Amino acid sequence: MTSDIVALVRHQPEISTVVEGMIAFGESLEPYDAGEGAVHLYDAGGRLAVSIETPQLVQVHGEVERLLGAEMADRVRVPIWWVDVRAAAGVPDAARIARRFADDIVHWQGGAVWPGPPGGEGPP
């Protein structure tokens, strides 16, 4: 079963820039443009580790609340870009890589990650 993370970012995401930064800082990944803005990240063994779906612009506050709950909706303002990040099951480090991508894109573009970091809430 995959592990799903949602990055809600304030500005239109630059997915390739964040991926390139992760690689520059030591992640052994091979990105593949899956078309229409989606990106797949393969590990050093050639296994699909993470899928980053095409970012979607959310302009209705109620959509964030409906899908992720009132607490998350209170942490963000619309319009906001929704980015689904999926870690493949059974691939070592896939969940860590997915979390790192989500955390990095929110760090650089502002926003929030759902679910929050293990062990507590991060900054809004």
List the helices and strands and how they pair.
Layout: E1 3-9, H1 15-24, E2 30-35, E3 38-42, E4 48-52, E5 56-58, H2 61-68, H3 70-73, E6 80-87, H4 94-109, E7 111-114
Antiparallel strand pairs: 1-6, 1-7, 2-3, 3-4, 4-6, 5-6
List keywords for this structure.
124 residues, alpha+beta, TATA-Binding Protein, 4 helices, 7 strands, 31% strand
Report on the structure:
Helix content is 31%, strand content 31%. The protein is α+β, with helices and mostly antiparallel strands. It has a single domain (3-114), classed as 2-Layer Sandwich (TATA-Binding Protein), CATH 3.30.310. Strands 1, 2, 3, 4, 5, 6 and 7 form a seven-stranded antiparallel β-sheet that branches. The longest helix is centred in the last third of the chain and has 16 residues, at 94-109. The radius of gyration is 14 Å and the shape is globular. The mean pLDDT is 91.
- The CATH architecture category equals 2-Layer Sandwich
Indicate the CATH class. Answer: Alpha Beta
- Taken as a percent bin, the fraction of beta residues is 25-35%
Low-confidence stretches: none
- Main β-sheet, in a few words? 7 strands, antiparallel
Give the termini distance in whole angstroms.
28 Å
User: What is the overall number of helices?
Assistant: 4
Multimerization status: single chain
